[in-house]
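Subject: design request, 560 residues
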C-alpha cells in the first residue's frame, strides 16, 4: 500500500506530457529514447511564450537523459533573416540551455523533402495544381460544406513528376502552380482537404541562396524534419492539434519514423500581445524602440529591462504545463522577478525627483563615510561606505508643507531618519517666484547616528537620500504596461493598437544616484531603496548613466 501511495503521489507531480513519456518508457517505445526539438521560425524575436516552449523541450530532454535539437524551420525566405537566427540562439543560451552540436535547419533537408514529395506523387498522393491561391481557398469549402476537387487533381503521375521538376528548376513563374497532397476534400478537418506542400518562390534564402525556386510549406517541412532527426516527441501548442491528423498522414504514407506530436497550452499573459506578427507591427510603426524595447514581451526586451533567467524559468515552472488555454496574470511574472532580485540585487540610493535638503547645524565642510548594508537578504554581500555632508537630495514627494494625517515622511516640525545616517527635523523652506519649494532646511541630532543606542524616541519615517556634493547625474526610464486592456488581442471589433498605453514610458532626466554607481554598466541590477528594482541600460556609458525600472517593490498596478 505504501509503495502504491508513493507512486500515486509521483504521478500527481508529473505533467501530462511526462506521464505520456513515462508510459512509453515502460512499454519500451523508442528504445527508452527521449529526443525533443525546439523549432522556431527565424522571422522574428522570441518572446516569453516561446520560452515556455523551449524550457519544456530542453527541460524534458534533461530530465530523461535525452537530447534536444535546435532546428530553425526556415521555409519562408521573404520573412526570415540571419538577424533573427542569431537573436534566437542568444535568447536560448541566456536562459541556460545548450543544444551542443545539434543546430539544424529545415533547409538542410530540402533535398530529402523534395524526394519525399516525389514519393507521394508516385503513389498518386500528390499533384501539381494550377489554381490560384484564391481559388484553392474557395475550393476547400467550409467546415460544414465539402470542398470541390481541383480540376488538376487527377493528372497522371508522369505529368505531375514533370511539372514538379519544372517547378524545382525555376522554369515556371511565381504563383503559377503549387504541389498539393491528395487526401480528402470532404474531410471535416480543413487541413486534410488537399493541403499545399510546395509553392514557387523565386527568392533568396539566407542559407541556400538562390539554389531553390520552390519552398515547402510549414506543415510539410516541419513534420518530416522531425522524422528525419528521429524526434520522439514533437511538442506543439494547442493550435496545432488540428494539424496532427495531417502530420500522422504524412508519416503513414511515407513510412518514416513516427514522431509523436503532443499539444500543450501556449503561454498567454494579461496586458500583453504574444503574436510575432503583431509585435513586428509595433516595431515597424514606431510604437516601441525595436524588438528589445523593455516594454516588449520579447526575451531581448525582458533581458534589457533587467529580468533574470532564473526569474523567467521560475515563472514558467510556476505556471506549469496545461491542456487548456488561459490568460496568466502578468503580475505573476513581475512577482517572480521581484522575488529573484530581492535576493540578488544590492541596495543603493537614488533620488528620481530631487529637492535639496540643507542641514543647518551640520558642519559646512565636514564629510562622513557612513556604513550601509548592501543586501539584508544576503550578508555575504557585505557593506559599503556612503558619503554624507551638509547638503543632500531627497525625493520631492517625501516632503509636504501641509501633510495629511497619515503622512509619515518629512513635514515642518516633524522628524524622520535619513537611512543609515541621522534623525533630522524640518524647520523651514525656500520657494521660487512661483511658490514652488526649492530647498528644505532642517536640523539633525548628532547623537542619532544610525546604529547608535542613545536615541530613545520612536521615529516612524525613514527616507533615502544622496549627498549633493557626491551625487551622480542619471537618466531613469520608468516603464509601465504597454497596453491598458488586460486582453488587448481579445476584441473582435477593435484593433489591439487602440489599447496602447500612452504613458508606458516616462523618462526622468534630472535624477541623482549615489557615487558607487559610477562604474555601473549594462546589465547590472540594483534595488533603488524604497523605489523598486532597476538595471543599468545598454545606453549607459562613462559619460551618461541610464537606468531602467525593472519592477516596483510591490504590485501597484492593481491599486490604480
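Subject: RE: design request

Done. Sequence follows.
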Amino acid at each position: 500500500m505504501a509503495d502504491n501511495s508513493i507512486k500515486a503521489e509521483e504521478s500527481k507531480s508529473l505533467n501530462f506530457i511526462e506521464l505520456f513519456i513515462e508510459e512509453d518508457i515502460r512499454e519500451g517505445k523508442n528504445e527508452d529514447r527521449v529526443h525533443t526539438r525546439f523549432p522556431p521560425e527565424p522571422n522574428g524575436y522570441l518572446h516569453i511564450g516561446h520560452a515556455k516552449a523551449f524550457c519544456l523541450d530542453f527541460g524534458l530532454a534533461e530530465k530523461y537523459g535525452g537530447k534536444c535539437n535546435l532546428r530553425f524551420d526556415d521555409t519562408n525566405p521573404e520573412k526570415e533573416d540571419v538577424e533573427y537566427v542569431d537573436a534566437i540562439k542568444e535568447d536560448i543560451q541566456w536562459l541556460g540551455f545548450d543544444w551542443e552540436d545539434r543546430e539544424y535547419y529545415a533547409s538542410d533537408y530540402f533535398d530529402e523533402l523534395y524526394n519525399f514529395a516525389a514519393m507521394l506523387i508516385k503513389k498518386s498522393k500528390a499533384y501539381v495544381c494550377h489554381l490560384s491561391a484564391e481559388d484553392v481557398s474557395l475550393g476547400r469549402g467550409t467546415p460544414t460544406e465539402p470542398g470541390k476537387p481541383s480540376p488538376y487533381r487527377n493528372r497522371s503521375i508522369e505529368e505531375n513528376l514533370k511539372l514538379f521538376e519544372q517547378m524545382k528548376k525555376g522554369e515556371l513563374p511565381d504563383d503559377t502552380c503549387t504541389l498539393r497532397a491528395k487526401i480528402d476534400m470532404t474531410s471535416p478537418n480543413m487541413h486534410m482537404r488537399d493541403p499545399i506542400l510546395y509553392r514557387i518562390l523565386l527568392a533568396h534564402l539566407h542559407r541556400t541562396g538562390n539554389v531553390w525556386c520552390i519552398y515547402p510549406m510549414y506543415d510539410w517541412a516541419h513534420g518530416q524534419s522531425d522524422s528525419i532527426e528521429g524526434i520522439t516527441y514533437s511538442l506543439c501548442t494547442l493550435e496545432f492539434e488540428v494539424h496532427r491528423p495531417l502530420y500522422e498522414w504524412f508519416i503513414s504514407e511515407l513510412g518514416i519514423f513516427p514522431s509523436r506530436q503532443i499539444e500543450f497550452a501556449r503561454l498567454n499573459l494579461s496586458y500583453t500581445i504574444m503574436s510575432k506578427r503583431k509585435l513586428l507591427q509595433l516595431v515597424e510603426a514606431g510604437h516601441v524602440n525595436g524588438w528589445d524595447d523593455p516594454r516588449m514581451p520579447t526575451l531581448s526586451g525582458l533581458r534589457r529591462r533587467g529580468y533574470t533567467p532564473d526569474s523567467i524559468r521560475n515563472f514558467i515552472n510556476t505556471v506549469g504545463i496545461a491542456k487548456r488555454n488561459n490568460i496568466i496574470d502578468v503580475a505573476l511574472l513581475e512577482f517572480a522577478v521581484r522575488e529573484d532580485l530581492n535576493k540578488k540585487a544590492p541596495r543603493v540610493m537614488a533620488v528620481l525627483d530631487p529637492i535639496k535638503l540643507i542641514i543647518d547645524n551640520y558642519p559646512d565642510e565636514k564629510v562622513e563615510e557612513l556604513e550601509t548594508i548592501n543586501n539584508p537578504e544576503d550578508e555575504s554581500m557585505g557593506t559599503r561606505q556612503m558619503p554624507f555632508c551638509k547638503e543632500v537630495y531627497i525625493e520631492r514627494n517625501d516632503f509636504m508643507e501641509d501633510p495629511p494625517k497619515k503622512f509619515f515622511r518629512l513635514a515642518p516640525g516633524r522628524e524622520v531618519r535619513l537611512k543609515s545616517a541621522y534623525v533630522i527635523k524640518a524647520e523651514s523652506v525656500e520657494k521660487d517666484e512661483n511658490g514652488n519649494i526649492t530647498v528644505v532646511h532642517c536640523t539633525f541630532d548628532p547623537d542619532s547616528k544610525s546604529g547608535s543606542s542613545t536615541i530613545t524616541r520612536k521615529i516612524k519615517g525613514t527616507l533615502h537620500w544622496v549627498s549633493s556634493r557626491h551625487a551622480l547625474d542619471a537618466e531613469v526610464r520608468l516603464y509601465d504596461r504597454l497596453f491598458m486592456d488586460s486582453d488587448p488581442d481579445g476584441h473582435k471589433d477593435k484593433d489591439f493598437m487602440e489599447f496602447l498605453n500612452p504613458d508606458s514610458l516616462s523618462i526622468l532626466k534630472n535624477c541623482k544616484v549615489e557615487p558607487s554607481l559610477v562604474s555601473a554598466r549594462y546589465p547590472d541590477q540594483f534595488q533603488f531603496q524604497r523605489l523598486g528594482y532597476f538595471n543599468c541600460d545598454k545606453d549607459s556609458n562613462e559619460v551618461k548613466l541610464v537606468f531602467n525600472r525593472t519592477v516596483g517593490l510591490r504590485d501597484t498596478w492593481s491599486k490604480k
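The chain has three domains: 27-264, 267-349+471-560, 353-464.
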